[in-house]
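Hi everyone, sorry if this is the wrong subforum. Our group has a chain we'd like a structural model of before ordering constructs, and none of us has done structure prediction before. Sequence below.
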Amino acid sequence: QVQLVESGGGLVQPGGSLRLSCAASESAFRIGTMGWYRQAPGKQRELVVSITSDGNTNYADSVKGRFTISRDNAKNTVYLQMNSLKSEDTGVYYCYAGARSGAYFYTPWGQGIQVTVSS
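Answer:
Right subforum, don't worry. Here is the predicted structure as tokens:
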């Protein structure tokens, strides 16, 4: 099985920046698309951004121009640079990945990391 370990969350003032990281453990699974969802208090989980193994990205409209996703395929690690943060970016951020081994495919998730944007 694949384990995803997230890091980099915390408290930041509006207009500030944070960088999240998510590393997938080594396994027999091949890692494809990776990305981030977030869940604000009292709201449904929503897709923030995804990136394929060849670098194609898909951003939520609410973060376009402020967030940048990148990945290091050799390390099976994805990074999320978040700039110009707003209070509405507050929530728990969850990393996910598409993992395949032969005909078996599943989506592991990270444990979630808190991002709080507040003055």
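For your construct planning: The chain has a mean pLDDT of 95. The longest strand covers residues 91-101.
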